[in-house]
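Inputs:
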Amino acid sequence: MTQQDAAPGSGTHDGGQGDGPVPALRVEGLSRHFGSLKAVEDVSFKVRPGSRHAVIGPNGAGKSTLFALTAGALRATAGRVWLHGDDVTSLTEHARARRGLVRTFQHSSLFLRATARENVLLAVQRRHGVQAQPWRAVTRRSALVREADEVLDRLLLSHRSGQLAGALSHGERRQLEVAVALAAAPSVLLLDEPAAGMSPADTHAFQEIVLGLPPELTVLLVEHDLDLVFGVADHVTVLHLGRHLLTGLPAEVRASDEVQHAYLGAEDTSALFFEEQE
Amino acid sequence: MSTDAGLRSRGRRLPLRTAVLVAVVTVLLLLVPWVFGAFTVMTFTRALVFAVLAMSVNLLTGVAGMPTLGQAAYFGVGAYTGALVGIHWSELGVVQLALATLAGVVAAVLTGPLAIRGRGVAFLMITLAIGEIGYTAAGRLDSVTGGTDGMSGIPPVVVTPGGSGLVNEGLIYYYVLVVAAVSYAAVAVLLRSPFGLTLRGLRDNESRLRSVGYRTDSYALAAYVYAGGLAALAGSLWASSQRFVAPGDLGFEISALALLAVIVGGVGSMWGACLGALLVVFTRDYLGQQLSGHAPLLLGILFVLTVYLLPQGVAGGRAQWRRLFPKDHGGDPGTVTPT
Amino acid sequence: MTGWLDAHLVSMVDGVAYGLLLFTLAVGLSLVFGMMDVLNLAHGTLYLAGAYTAYALSDGSWLGLLVALLVGLLVGLAGGGLLAAAVAPLQGRGHLDQAALTLGIALIAAEVMAMFFGAEVLPTAPPGSLARSVSVLDHSYPLYRLVFIAVAGVLAVLVYLAFERSSVGALVRATVADRDMVRAMGVDTRKVLFGVFAFGAVLATVGGVLGAPIIAPGPGIDDRVLVLSLVVIVIGGLGSVRGALLGALLIGQVQTLGVALTPAFAPFLLFGAMLLVLVLRPQGLSSLGRA
């Protein structure tokens, strides 16, 4: 039962490769094959500490698989994953989560028969190491409850804390999805298409939430909604057919011909970035 | 499904109502030996033992989401352990209960890792196999269990050191009632604890639990061990109250009836499980006797009616009861049900 | 080796008969579970109904058996239809409610049958001309069992071909593989539910009519064949005709050869095998939804 809190970047060997600060997250040569299908093939990139890093790519680019490999939900065929300089490739999903690498789910994955507050409490109590204590009501442990309520407050869900997760609206579930992950006190937060199925208004509100996250928290975001991506990301990685195409600043990605051809198959970048090209 | 208002208003009113309800039920249970004859009192005793077993099944099935057909095996481990301790070592109830529970815990620790390899129906089938193997073993290990003849000659249980054994069925009833009440309280505390929340999380969404850092198999095993210990405790009560243990006490029928009691009571609700156990035992032993041995028929009707008319069990929400017995006007605006 | 074989030949042939009998039961249970995700714990009751039908109608003549078969078929159709209608309203409510309902129905049906046929096991005679023994490799063996093996073997092959080769079989296999997809293609799953239930039930009752001289009807027999069928489908895999056949033949041998070889361990062998398969491949069952 290791207690984690922003796992330190000590014990680093090779993870940072010596240039600049140790990346919060680094994947190197990551591959995953399903039979003859190479869903992800030799993908490498780094995510800086405190960065808002987006992964984009057309359908079938391998975003979801890459995400599962990073979180540890899938085993990699080849390649390695480093978290703050520590090799976590052999660790299971829950062990990575304990070290601060916490994911959300594309299709809201909540505890539908528990209240919103209990959803968050599940993450909070694990972090405090009391998840196996069979005495004293969890709701009477004021330190835990206060912490859970703070997270709900940050995700604008305070008014719904007593509701069953199953009774929340789609947008609220997406917010709770992030709240549960945040309550696990990640140092690197993996967001899997957080805006999937959200209305434009909800997406906009969500963008504010992401922008309001603590600056020291590293966020890796896989997302279809490019308005959201270019609204929050400071770095963008583009995947295409399972391979890494480009990692760069948003402006570089927008200007790239390579991205334009491969990503869109269209000649006109504006179809992709029209909102941003006013 | 209750509306938001219904949930909240219920939450506010709960404490007083619960206190009154607990008081009434306690008084009624305490009155049983004064009101009823010996046969009925013994039926109540069996129902209480069965209620503890049903709580154990419900802890796995309803709370942790792992439906089991094997709890009778741990019930049997507790029954035989309690009986053996009583015959060979100590007639003291506390000693029998403690050692029986310990034996159940050990058995669950040893077999649990196999059981939790599966979830859902796979878990159900693994526990079925464990239960059947336990049943077979009980019938074959003649030197330990007395084989298919069963184990008799269990001395009356003694409550305080130097006291005399309980032979009066009213006193045995009180002995079982006290232990069952303590078990209920312990389980109720557990359900509200962080561990209880962990188990509900396991039921609702295991993969999400993993993603926030839970090694979920550990908690599934922990639930299995708790439930095994509780079932064994019930087994010890069985040995003390019946003073006879046979392989039939850990057969498929007992596991199935315990699971059905949980379903009748309302999966996930502990008082529902107890009520379900009461219903099942009284249908089988009391009504069944009145109708000259047609207990299975009555049980079958009970199960079919419950599934159709009370989908969430006896304990599951007032909405379904209201649908069964519609009133002219909704008395409680807080719990109007949307359909 | 030949000595060993000779000594246990009777057990092994018994095992084949027993296995084929189990197959007629398990295949319906397996398909209903694999295709419709319904756990039907009243399946053993259907066998018992068929076996009682044979007891009541067969008078040692071929005509009696034929009538029993026809009535058994009708009983199967009616029983399957009733069960399908009973579980249809429970769509989406999980396996526990199905288990409680079908177990309740099984209890009621068992009690009703017990009212008519009493609490004794009723040995059922095969048609007179088959009720004798023949000599097989110097062993005296009941002729009826050999005929049963032939008939049930043909039945198994027919069922196998129907599911592997026909278009209905293709639909069935597709439903096992991806229920939602088939639903999305516009197939009326209610019709499929009734069809599969009726088919499985008829197989079970016909198995009961033919199997009555082998596993005689009596109270508790329904539970026994149900549990054995569950073991078979766990070992053979869900929704697979071939798996059900292999699993049934294996369990048949465990129940006969196993008893002959290690009488003390045979009961453990049965559930030990089931446990082993489940522990090694739990996903074989759990991937098809949770209870």
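The beta strands of chain A are 25-34, 37-47, 52-56, 78-83, 86-87, 101-103, 188-192, 218-222, 235-240, 243-248. Flag for discussion at group meeting.
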